[in-house]
Amino acid sequence: MLGPGLLNGLQPSRWPSKPPEREHNSSRRTPCEVMAIRASISDLMWPALEMLLRRQRTTCSTPTTCRDRLRWRSKAIRSGSWSPSRSKVKPVPPRRPGWPNRNDSSDHEDAMTSRIAHLLRSIGLLAVVVIALPWALIAGARARFGGASPLHGVPSPTDWELSRIVGALTSRLTEATLTDIVIRAALMVAWVAILVVVITAVAELVHMIRYDGIPLPAIRALGPSQQLARLIATGFMVIVPALGVSASTVGADALIAERTPIEVDHDATTSAPVWNTQLDRSSSPVTVRSSSTESTESESTYVVRSGDSIYGIAQRLAGPDAKAIDRFASAIIEANLGREMGDGQRFVNAAFIDVGWVLQLPPLPSLAQAPTLAPVGPVHLVTEGESLWSIAADRLGAGERWREIFDLNQSRQFDDGRQLDDPDLIHPGWELYLPGTVEDSPSVLLPGLESQVPLIDEVVPSDDAAASAVKSGVDDVVPVTGQVEDVSLAADDDPAPDNVWVDDDELVASTNDDVQPDLVAAPVNLSDSETPTPITTEISAHQSEQESSEIRVVTLGRATMMSAGILALLGVRRRERLRRSRSRSRLPAVPPRAAAVERVLRSIDVGDRWARVEISVRSVALAVADAGGRVLAVLVDQTGEVEIRFSTPVELDSPWEGGGERWRVPAHVPIELLAPSARRSGAPCPTLVQLGVDPDGREVYVDLEALEALHIDADPEIADSIVSAVATTLAGSILAEVTSLVGVGIPTAAFLGHRRYLAADTPASAIATAIEAVGSTRAQERSPFDLRARVTSGETWEPAVVLVGSGADPVVAPGDRTALAIVSAVPIDGPAHRLSAHGSTWTLEPAGLTLVPLGLEADEAESIAQLVDVPPTDESTDDWTLPPSVWHEIRDAELGDTVDDHHTDDHDWELVACLLGPVDVTTRDGQPVEFARSKSRELVAWLATHRDRSTRMAARTALWDLDVRDATFANVVSDARRALARAQEPPEGDEWIARTLTDELPLHHKVVTDVDLIDRALIEARLQPPDQAIATLAPVVRRITGFPFEGTSYLWPDAEGLTSQLALVATTATSELAAHYLSVGDIAGVFDATARGLQVVPGHEELIGLRMQAHAQAGDLAGVRHEWDQYERALTRDPWSDGEPSRKLVELRQHLLRR
């Protein structure tokens, strides 16, 4: 083992004050020379640390100081930053003085002595473990049992006899037998321990050889045996360099061989060699002139965020090529292995990285994904039905110029989080930049890029270098920082994009899932005759530093509980609206913002995680109540594994695993195993909310009532967004249906119209209001958790939550907080939990949870409130006395030219898309169409319901939440064409889905929907007598088999309001048919028609009224009461329902029962 003499000659006092001229002008150190130095040092570095600390206790104030010095010295050799051929900058001395000066002979003697001593020690320990101890065990076994094996003399299992087994189990054990058992067991344990030590020592040695002397991570189960094995392996590391074994240097040599150093002229405060991974080696070096007054790091860095892994980081930065990802991941490991991170942990295991770690990055293989500067030009707001071709034709005068629009906006990220990667797929609401020239428009930084583009120095490559780089199609990567002055690139014959390097700290923000920049510009293509003009951009250093350190929160895309609750609340309110709707009424149009928010919420993959959380909490509630504890937090990962943390230690039965205050149920345990115990308990945690996501990607839920008080310690804007997210989550939670929510300085929209919401002016009045709302719950001897878990007396024992914004006065929390929770963006006077930011993550103290919280901006809360504020239906004002022929003319005029000849003949159709129930496509004789892809059936359904805007771009936007390849969409269209043609031959010369030279994708007019048939039948039956109306309506009503789009997960019907529209058509048709049956006295017809309508909207008031009248007409008053009971059950089945019946139905019931 080497002593401190290993680093002899590297003391600052011995460094040359001026680089030798010979080294500066001649060759630099080659990669092989660098690797030779690294191989000779790294293999012995970490074993030398222990000896170095022992020898220098008198000169180092703390062990950490010595370790820092050793790390600093090793880094100087590893990175070559001290080499005079790399920079004109004087090396920076160690942070603390007092490095001992030793002469060369002393260092050499110490090194040799230490190496020999440690090698001999390891040999001795190994001899004891593999020779002395086995010899002693064998000798003891022979002396006692007459053989070397601990089991010598024990009969083989093949010789066992039943009588001897019974005798051994029934007879008393003698003292000699007990002694033999103990000795044999001790011998076997000793042999196992020896085997463990030997295997662990081999593993430690292999790991140290592979990873530059770094030992294996500590394994808790091994304990002292691993320490002994590590001690043995450390001594044998002395002879490894002599054997020429260093696996780590092989990969590193391959990595450095690909790098080409660039000459750097720094100021006195800069010490950073700049590497370029892909510059042509034959080109002239790039010169970087720095004007920064602050020191910069020599390598790019990456701040680890929640959910990151080494491979994931490499995939984002070096993808999509699999080999490039593997190489880059290996390079990241090589660059960081053994480094001590900011939290004191050391990177020793590639499978474990922690949030907030700053990883050194090797040079990126490409800058293809870096944001660029682009000129400002006209902006076009995309509307429904538009395509790039139509926009180019309208705004640029020629549809052929659509490529210019696509090139200018490619890879941009819009407000809805989507990117423009496919020219056939644009979304309504996008703002597209139209082409403009660089000369006509000032070059500025596009909106949203301020937080991504760092301060950079002026980069002026030589003409030969730039030309070579352009010809090879490779971008130069120069990660340096400073003040932006001028960026000039020389162009050759081929156009090349102008790239601005994005620092890796900022690149984290642009690639992380929870941060979406407003805009990412594409490169500007220049013609052969054009010369790129210099692009000038200036941003302040203070602004860049402020934005790069911005505290992050999780966006709506990870709000599992919030999205599930909002969609459930939305469904309840829409069903209530449909129940109260009348025949011939219409639904109001869905606002675009509300439709966009609903689409985002429905795209969130909730799975069964929230259900597992709720059932898991209820299943342990009684055991926790018996222990006098509370549920503090629940964590669930993407696989469904649930971990619960309690306020006191509890004991749980299988399938729960763990102990004390932490228990978990694995993901493979079905939720049905927890259901029996969950059914015995009530909902004990009505204030359970999702607070955020932890570094492992697990969703973090906390019980606000158990926390009692929670202070969000952050900037006012961020703190308000977190409190608003908590308020919206509670307002949409089924568990908090009867919880009182009191807000102070929180937007009313965040509470989604919660029936128990109360506003207050000050925190003091809010707390008083909350205490009053809780009532006698606070006076109970038992805790509210216990009362709810045991479903005591049928009461809900509802709590109250006070939510305080940043504009309020400080909160003075009461001493008794029973059934009361406080979430505040201002300080709380009294004991409280505190959620505060530490770098890119947050910590909840004193619970000790690390997470990134959910945040909800004010405009997002407004959009969600607009979505759940379901307006009532509009009563129809149409004149239904017009003849059907006039109605056909009106309807065809409304549809316009997009559906020529559509509905000219009610019987002129061949295929029908069934939407009122399970989605299917059938022929006229009822034969179903067989599709190879489910998306093909969805495409036909979408085309049949969107004839006014049946374009390829609109179809792709609706059918896929993410962008898809052109080939994927083409395969879906082809499958739909073939399937329809196989089921029914199209008219001669036509196809069911026409082929066009434009973006149009029309569906043949002989393919209709069941809604079309019902709509036409309703028009025909308006002025017909009851018998004829029944004959017209009955065949089409029989096509209603369930709720619209039943059994599907389509995103577009609900977001567009189409599901409710179709449900309204179904209830209108069934109610009118039932009314005609009732007028002719056909009671069975009434029940059949209304039953189909109630399949679509259970509890529909008009249909229930018709059924009650039919029972009364038949003299069946018990049937009237039965229908009323069914109606009340439908009312109370939904959460958030107050069970208040319709006044008209109440009067009808009273009237019928008095007859």
Measure the end-to-end span. Answer: 106 Å
The CATH superfamily label of the domain at 884-1051 reads Winged helix-like DNA-binding domain superfamily/Winged helix DNA-binding domain
> The CATH topology of the domain at 884-1051, please?
Arc Repressor Mutant, subunit A
Provide a count of the helices: 37
Write down the overall geometry: globular
Q: How would you sum up the major sheet?
A: 14 strands, mixed
Compute the gyration radius: what is it? Answer: 38 Å
Number of strands: 31
**Fraction in beta strands:** 5-15%
Report the uncertain regions: 1-105, 245-298, 366-376, 437-549, 878-882, 884-888, 894-904
Instruction: Please identify the structural class as seen in this structure.
Output: alpha/beta
CATH architecture of the domain at 884-1051: Orthogonal Bundle
Provide the residue-averaged pLDDT: 73
- Strand order, largest beta sheet: 13-14-12-11-16-15-26-25-24-17-22-20-18-19
Question: Regarding CATH, which class of the domain at 884-1051?
Answer: Mainly Alpha
* Helix share bin: 40-55%
General description of the model:
Keywords: Membrane, Transmembrane, Transmembrane helix. This is LysM domain-containing protein. There is one protein chain. α30 (1010-1020) runs antiparallel to α31 (1026-1037). A hairpin with a 2-residue loop joins β13 (657-659) and β14. Strands 13-14-12-11-16-15-26-25-24-17-22-20-18-19 form a 14-stranded mixed sheet, sandwiched between helices. It has a three-stranded mixed sheet with strand order 29-27-30. Helices cover 42% and strands 10% of the residues. The protein is built from 37 helices and 31 strands. Among the domains are: 4-109 and 247-257, no CATH class; 111-242, no CATH class; 884-1051, Arc Repressor Mutant, subunit A, CATH 1.10.10.10.
